[in-house]
Amino acid sequence: MCEEGGCGACIVAANVPNPQTGKTTTIAVNSCLTPIYNCHGWAVETVEALGSSSKGFGKIQSRLASNNGTQCGYCTPGMVMNMYSLLQENKDISMSEVENSFGGNICRCTGYRPILDSFKSLAKDASEDLVKKCVDIEELSVICPRTKQECLTSCGNLCDRSIDPLLNESRLQLKTDDGKNWYRVKSVQEIFEILEMVDDESYMLVGGNTSYGVYRPTKNINHFIDIKGVRELIVASESNDSLTLGANLSLSSAMHFFNSVSKSKSALFGYTKQMADHIDLIASVPVRNTGTLAGNLSIKHQHRDFPSDLFLILETVGARINIADSMGMEKTLPIQEFLNNDMNKKVIKSISLQPLNSNSYTFKSYKIMPRAQNSHAYVNAGFLFKLDNNDKFKVLEKPRIVFGGINPNFVHAELTETFLEGKHLSDSKVIAESLKTLEGELKPNHVLPDASPEYRKGLAISLLYKFVLSLLPDEVASKMKSGGANLIRPLSTASQTFETDKKLWPLNQPVHKLEAFAQCSGEAQYVNDIPSHPGELHAAVVVAKKATAKSFTLNPEKALKMDGVISFFTAKDIPGRNNCMSSIMYPTFVNEEILASERILHAGQALGVIVAKSRAIALRAAEQVEVVYNNIEPPVVDFIDVIKSQDNKRITEKGKIERKTKKDDIKHKLSGTFEIGAQYHYTMETQTCYCIPLEDGMDVYPSSQWPSMIQWTVADVLNVQQNTINVKVKRLGGAYGSKISRNNQISALCALCAHLLQRPVRLNLSLETNMQMIGKRFPCYIDYEAAVNDDGKIQYLDAKLYQDVGARENESDVVSGTLHWLPNTYDSETWSVIGYSVRTDTPANTWCRAPGSTEGVAAIEHIMEHIASIVKKDPVAVRLQNFRTDADPLKPMIDEIKASSDYQKSISEIEEFNKNNRWKKQGISLIPLAYPLDYFGRYHANISIFAGDGSVAISHGGIECGQGVNTKAAQVCAHILGIPLDLIKVKSTMSLITPNDSTTGGSITSEAVCYAIKKCCEELNTRLQPYKEKMPKADWKTMIQAAVNEDVDLNCSSMYKNKSLSSYLIFGVTVIRVEVDILTGQHQIIRADIMEDAGQSLSPDVDVGQVEGAFVMGLGYYLHEQLVHDKQTGKLLTDRTWNYKPPGAKDIPTNLHVTLVKNSRNPVGVLRSKATGEPPLNMSFGVVPAIRNALKSARKDSGIEEDWFDLKMPLTCENVWLHGSTHVKDMTL
């Protein structure tokens, strides 16, 4: 989990008393941001309160589980509790309100669609079809025996929910073991009494504590003063003269107040509706529930670079702030002046707003951010104008034009404000001059990883222009009107289409995942849920903060003096080999140190490990270890620089596609490049391990996709036999390739500490350390030249492909994989492509979902788009010209998806839309896929049938990380044995039962495991056949007992071996339609249609989930996720939820249709099925040409005539805007 309120996995419900009303409200809160002392007077409910396997499941849990709204399940409790809190306060919630409330909940697995559908089915306006689709047939309404109302929990007559909490009116003081003081006060006077008492010691007024999610404390706080119980600080009042808001009012409460006042006093305070809408864009529901007005403003006071949306809107409308001091003096200041006011031992009491006549004043604000929700702004803007609409929109007084995100000291566009006073906004010359004036006074700074000054400056100008256009819908040219409107996202819709044969059930049956209900109730156990053992310790890794260094020294003295710190270990303490990448387990691996012994190769490299009595102490102590870097050399972090320099020490050839023929029908030549960066896996569960020493070895519980590799690595590091290391994995909280090889180091470090201390040790990386230490997806660059005929058929293609492997080459076979997948559906006989690895001074990059295929498919589809542009032909026709014969099954799929997606109609609509709109543009693309799936490795399956009840237990060599391998294994087992699915349980993967098995990855594991399961079941059926013949009418239980009575062995093992199954192609087609706001760079996917050939799916709902999840992860890669390094130190700067943004719930397509191809049977697959886990990520590349087509229209409107232009990836708002050719000269009326 992120531990900063950015992911939502830790959300719980808090029943909170309101000191003003005396009533209780239920709110969702981020437990990671909430100090336990801050919960005084609260009743806190976790997901376990809603239902469980022992007492039944609540409605929310049942809806989510039965609609396949879980995959890895790590985010699920937070999702459930957020929805629970919403329903507790709003029984009549609408679907749009539901969909808008999950910006603070990240899910990397599902793509959000099934989660949103499940929760929207609980809304008052949910359609019958949606409810029918999501309701489990066993779901029952529960009536609470206490309240006599329908209950969302499932405690029945044993209602154990806490009664409403009571606010303890007494003042409270607590002292912690480390000497800190916590005070709970109930009046402003008591605040000042404590401030006088603390003298000059550090203190903090605690409201919601949400600032920790933005800025880490830079000083040690001695006194914490909890001010939530102070009535006068949370009162909101209204009159015709002003609105007054208590400074400690939560953002959510302020939002509700503004919405209410905007209706009740619309003539004077109608503008507060815009304020409420803007607050809705601040952070997330749980953060807004606890974050306060004063808290947000205080962050701005302490950190001028903070792009506070609250400060912006308050300053724009001319709000004033009331501040009190210990002498009883109060003063009222404009919001901007507050920034320069000394706030030591002072308290913000209230904020007041003036009435603004809605007939003459217009207030609008904007926030442009990297994704739809829960992100700070690139630039935010507020505009307040008093206008005479009957006099050419004359500006009657000096307007207020406020921007955030320009530089720490910029607030008002003062020159522009002065210029516009008395001017007519409908005068095009006035607008041109005002934009020019604004352009001159904007001086953006540039602090990485912030967006470029060029974008932020241009965006601010665009927002003023957008504001003006919004005022003059009837005064501007029709083509310009769209520029005045924001992109409006409608309520999302979706469909899933597949076939299921009831004669095969439970095989091919759409069932929920086996673990779904356990995940929805919090009963699913992950590594960090394993109960603590006596004497347990916690470890934290000391990492390099800069690179490179020829040598270094460590001084742990400060850390070791801290209370609770036990030990510090370095490479010298390793009893075995200092290596976490053994060639015994993977032939291409070369030595990679667990802890650096001499050189520092990259920032984030592990240097040592601290062990302490608690994780919090260990993490703090790790920061206290002093590192002296010797002979520092500047790091190389940009692999493009290496490519340009052709540094042979860093570039290594890894493979090639050799040309078989070269054709001569050459009518056009083209050349270009394609570049795409890295992607962080964003597993909700970071790298973790738990080790328990035993009398004859050690139990190791890693978050690993490859337990056999963990067993070997730990044994090798400790210099012990493998049979002393017992590895057990129940499930992972997300993986996507990051835990194939990269958990080796973490588990080895944890085991080292446990071995040396002979005590249980838990090592759980923080998100920042995880992102600093662990490699990402391989960045890719291709330089190409091609010749084609008039139809776009390739006559030859010459290319060099480069991929950034990081500081080590251990996973560099991804490069050869990229070459393998590069052809996609196309004939490569005329191609000559050489693949190279490029070494940089960054953490070793590693496998990431669809490694190689993602980069390869993207590169060739980019080239196909380039060809189509040059020959001026339909891109689909150009692709078909280059198809190879074995891709022919795609042709009917293309025809089908064209029809189902209204592809041709959409092209006509888009052409007309783009012709009529200058500042909004649309685009569409169709991408085919022929994904060669190749098998490898070995996977065990072990099945036991138990006498007495005939139940079945399975253990296999695959790792359940959300992909549904356990569910498919159980379905295959039930199908072949002919028994009900509920008789089967799938147990943990254990090294004793699945020795030497391969990694879970490459989309093959589910099928390979199911193959081994199938073989086991067939053998068991053979053993049971005599009893079936002797007892034809006996039920399963009786037959099993009879077999056991005659000593039949009902335990069977089998192993999938490499080449047990044949390779095959997975076919897919995707159509994506987008809309782009050219003025801001914002974009949304209007519709996405995905068709994939899953053969005869083993489990259709599971496969649909894989398609959606992979597709949305790909959208994140191409649209949102950007990694930025400090070029001086090599340190990753985007290492938190604050600055690394995977897609959120409102970033997915607004209209998403998934189809599994009908009447498909895979003759070489397991029970006629095909894999689904990775191919859809490849097809998400379609969003790139779709946006390119939209931008092409914008560039043409700006006067650019060109056949082709390159795009800088990812297509963030910044990069889209930069490519949109948006200039002040074009901003006309």
TrEMBL record:
Major place of residence: other
Cofactor: [2Fe-2S] cluster; FAD; Mo-molybdopterin
Positions of FAD binding: 305, 367
Gene3D superfamilies membership: 3.10.20.30, 3.30.465.10, [2Fe-2S]-binding domain, Aldehyde oxidase/xanthine dehydrogenase, a/b hammerhead, Aldehyde oxidase/xanthine dehydrogenase, molybdopterin binding domain, CO dehydrogenase flavoprotein, C-terminal domain
One Pfam family, short name: MoCoBD_2
Annotated positions binding Mo-molybdopterin: 705, 849, 1002
Signal peptide (UniProt feature, chain positions): none
SMART domains: Ald_Xan_dh_C, CO_deh_flav_C
Any one annotated GO CC term: peroxisome
Residues of the FAD-binding PCMH-type domain: 175-358
Binding-site list for [2Fe-2S] cluster 2: 72, 75, 107, 109
Catalytically driven reaction(s): indole-3-acetaldehyde + O2 + H2O = (indol-3-yl)acetate + H2O2 + H(+)
PROSITE patterns recorded: 2FE2S_FER_1, FAD_PCMH
Keyword Magnesium: no
Residues that bind [2Fe-2S] cluster 1: 2, 7, 10, 32
Note on cofactor: Binds 2 [2Fe-2S] clusters.
InterPro entries from the UniProt entry: 2Fe-2S-bd, 2Fe-2S-bd_dom_sf, 2Fe-2S_ferredoxin-like_sf, 2Fe2S_fd_BS, Ald_Oxase/Xan_DH_a/b, Ald_Oxase/Xan_DH_a/b_sf, Ald_Oxase/xanthine_DH-like, AldOxase/xan_DH_MoCoBD1
Active site location: 1174
Subcellular location: Peroxisome
Molecular function GO terms recorded: 2 iron, 2 sulfur cluster binding; FAD binding; indole-3-acetaldehyde oxidase activity; iron ion binding
Keywords for the protein's UniProt record, in alphabetical order: 2Fe-2S, FAD, Flavoprotein, Iron, Iron-sulfur, Metal-binding, Molybdenum, Oxidoreductase, Peroxisome
UniProt family annotation: Belongs to the xanthine dehydrogenase family.
Record note on quaternary structure: Homodimer.
Name of this protein: Indole-3-acetaldehyde oxidase
Organism: Laodelphax striatellus
